[in-house]
Amino acid sequence: MKRRHEGDINLLRIIHRLPQNILKMHDTENVCEFVLHDLCCQECFNLQKAAYFVDNPAFNCLKGVAGYECSQAYNGDIWHDPEAFTEHMRASDFNQKVRNAMHYSCKNCQEPDEKVMQDIAIELGMEDFAYCTWDLKHDNHGYLIYQAKEAPVEPEDLLSSLCFLGFCPIF
Which of 144, 133, 52, 42 is nearest to 89 (CA)? Predict the structure, then answer.
C-alpha cells in the first residue's frame, strides 16, 4: 500500500471540506475569496499569486472577482472567523486590484485569450504566469491567472478544484 505524502493529505482535506464550507457561507458576498484563499494557500496548491475573473459574453464583460497573494495571506482559520477574514481581504491591495479590474469579454474580442491574459497579468504585476479557463453556468467562463510559488502546479488538478468557484455566488 502506497503511503500518502503529508502535503497530499492536507490538500485533500481542504478540497474535501470546500463543499460544506461553501454551503455554510452561501449568502456571503465574498465566498469566492474564501475558496480562492483555501485553494492557493501553502497547504493546498501553494500559489504565489492568483487572480480569478468571470467572463460574461452576454454583457461583454470580464470582471475580476477575487485575488490572492501569499504575502497578504490571512493567518488563521478563514471559515471560523469570516468577518475578520473579510476585513483582511478588504485591506489586501492585490485583492482590491483584481476586484476593481474590468475588461471586455474575451469571448467577444478579436484578441486570443493568451494576449488578454498577458495584458491582465502585466497590469497585476504578475511574472512567469500561467492561466486556465473553464466553463461556468449561464454561459459564463472562469479564468484564473496564477504564479506558482515553487514547483509547477499540475493544471488538471488545479482546474478540477477551481470548478468549486462555480458554485459560489457573485454579487
Answer: 52
Residue 1 has pLDDT above 70, yes or no: no
Q: Which residue has the cell 466553463?
A: 135
Mind listing the pLDDT tens digit for each residue in 78-105?
A: 999 999 999 999 999 999 999 999 999 9
**Mean pLDDT, rounded, for 40-45:** 92
Q: Measuring CA to CA, which residue among 66, 63, 64, 102 is closest to residue 85? A: 66
What per-residue string of b and e applies to 25-54 under the rule 16 or more CB within 10 Å gives b? beebebbbbbbbbbbbbeebbbbbbbbbbb
What value does the mean pLDDT of the chain take?
92
Q: Which domains does the chain have, with CATH numbers?
A: 6-167 (3.30.450)
Tell me the β-bridge partners of 120: none
**What does residue 168 show for φ and ψ, rounded to 5 degrees?**
-95, 135
Please state, as a whole number, how many other Cβ atoms lie within 10 Å of the Cβ of residue 125: 11
* Phi, psi dihedral angles at 141 (to 5 degrees): -140, 140
C-alpha cell at 52: 480569478
pTM of the model: 0.93
Neighbour order of strands in the sheet with 102-103: 102-103, 61-69, 47-56, 141-148, 130-135
